[in-house]
Amino acid sequence: MPVNAETSPASPGRAEAPTAAVASDPKRWFALAVISVCQLMLVLDSSIMNIALPHAQHALGISDADRQWVVTAYTLGFGGLLLLGGRVADFVGRKRVFIAGLLGFAVASALGGIAGNGPLLYASRGLQGIFAAAMAPAALSLLTTTFTETRERARAFSVYGGISGGGAALGLVLGGLLTQYASWRWCLLVNVPIALVTAAAAGYVLKESRATGITRYDVRGALLATAGLTALVYGFANAGTHGWASASTVAVLAGAVVLLVLFFIVEAGNEHALLPLRLLRNRDRAGAYLTATLAAAGVASALVNTTQQIGGSLGTALLNTVAASATATALAVHPHLVQEAAVHGYRVAFAVAAAILLAGSATVLVMVRARRDDLPAGHQPAAL
User: Computed from CA positions of residues 133, 164, 40, 141, in that sequence, does the dihedral angle turn out positive or negative?
Assistant: First the structure.
C-alpha cells in the first residue's frame, strides 16, 4: 500500500501532542520490526485464504456464489472503516489502539479458524477487517512519530512499503503451504501467536502518541460508506445466483447507489468528514485514487489504502460472479464438461480483469498530469 512519509497521520487542523524529547527513540528500529510484522500480517490476510478457499468451501458447504465473502468480508471491513480507524487512533492513542487491534485480530482469527459454518467464517473475517482498520493507520502514524529524522524516516517507510507490496504475494505462497501440509484453518490460526507476541513486544518498544483537538468522529459517514459498499458487494454476489436483471439484484444495487450518494452528501456538509471532498477536486489526486480502486489515518494516505481495500472487495465480488455465471452458462450447454466449464469461467473472469486494468491505465493517461517538478521543494522524494 503506498504511503506518504511526509504527511502526518493526524487529521487536518489538529496539532500533535508535545513529545517529551526531540531526540530519536533508541528503540526505534525494534519499533520498526514490530510495526512491520503487524503490517505483514494485515497484508497477508488479504490473500492468504485465496488458495485455501476451495478447501474451506468444501468443508463448510459454501456455495460458489457465496465463497467470495471469505475474501471480501475482510477487505470490505478493512477499507470501509479505515478512515474512521485513523481518527480513533489519533485521539484515543496510537499505541493503545495498535495493541488493542492486535489482540482483537487474534480473537477474530481464532474464531475463523474454528468456524463450523460459512456465516461464522464470514463474520470472523469481517471482524478481522474491523481490527485491521484500526491497526493500519495507527501503525503508519507510529512510524511517523517514531522516526523524526528525514533520512531514517525514508528508510523506515521503504521497509514498510516493501512489506506492503510483497505481502499479498507471500500470502498466496503461505496459504498454499499451510493448506497442503496442515489445514486451511491454519491460514487463520497462524495469526493468533503472531498477533499476541507482537502485542507484547509493542507494549515494550512503542511510545504513545495522540493528537489534540476536538474529538469528533464522523460515525454517520462511516456507517453510510460501509453499508453502501456492503450492499454493492452483495449485489454483485447476488447477481451470480439470481442474475443481473433479477428484482433482488437490481434492488440491492439501487440501494447501494442511494447509500453512497447519501454518503457524499453528508461528507459535503461535514466539518469533520471522513472523506474531505477537497481531496477529490484535484484532478491528479482524484485520478490516482480511481486508479488505485481499479488496480487493486494523513487522510490522503489513508484514502489510498481505503481505495485499494475497497477495490479488492468489489473486484473479488464482481469477478467471482462473472466466473460463476460463465461457468453455469457453459454447463447448461455441455453439462458433462465440468472441468472445461470451470476453465471457461476463469477465462472470462480474467478477460474482465484485464479490461478493468486497461481502464485504470486509461484513467492515469487522461486524468493524472502531475510530474516530479510539480511537487513543492519540501515534498521531493528523499534519497535513501
Answer: negative
8 A C-beta contact, residue 229 and residue 313: yes
Total structural domains within the chain: 3
Q: Does some domain include residue 198?
A: yes
Interval 232-254 mean pLDDT: 82
Grid cell for residue 324:
460463476
Helix ranges (H only) for 243-337 are: 247-268, 278-281, 283-295, 299-333
**20 domain residue, yes or no:** no
State the DSSP string of 56-70. HHHHHT--TTTTTHH
Query: Could you read off the pLDDT of 57-72 as tens digits, one per residue?
Result: 999 999 887 888 888 8
- For CA atoms 245, 248, 249, 253, the dihedral sign is positive
Does one domain contain both 151 and 164? yes
Please tell me the distance from the alpha carbon of residue 132 to that of residue 126, in angstroms, as a whole number.
10
pTM for the whole structure: 0.69
- Distance of alpha carbon 62 from alpha carbon 125, whole angstroms: 15
Instruction: Please tell me whether residue 100 adopts helix, strand or coil conformation.
Output: helix
